[in-house]
Amino acid sequence: MITLLMKAHKVYTDSGGLQKEAYMLAKPCITLRQETEWVETLNQGWNTLTGANPQKIIAAANANNITSKPTLHYGDGKAADLIISHLKEKL
Fold it and tell me: DSSP string spanning 51-65?
């Protein structure tokens, strides 16, 4: 799934988890739901809520709402390295 996301231009989903993964991989996401638990993905335009409304889906598909790069809300992916380094210092 990650490979598919990496090669995608945009993501259309009703999955909560896929919204977050798309954001982390800097892929615009169109969420076919009325709400999201990942509100931070909406703030910079990386995620658009459309529900099942065809007009909203088409408008979101044609729009470019992104105002900046995704911020590192979830860390930089280096937590394991930091933990290992810290444990080695303690041994």
Answer: TT-HHHHHHHHH---
Other Cβ atoms within 10 Å of 44 Cβ, number: 15
Question: 23, 38 in Cβ contact below 8 A?
Answer: yes
Note the pLDDT tens digit of each residue in 15-72. Answer: 988 999 999 899 999 999 999 999 988 988 899 999 999 999 999 999 987 877 887 7
For residue 34, the one-letter residue type is Q
Helix, strand or coil, per DSSP, at residue 24: helix
In the three-class reduction of DSSP (H, G, I as helix; E, B as strand; rest coil), residue 80 is classed as helix
| 32 three-class SS | coil
Determine the Cα–Cα distance for residues 63 and 19; give it in Å rounded to an integer.
17
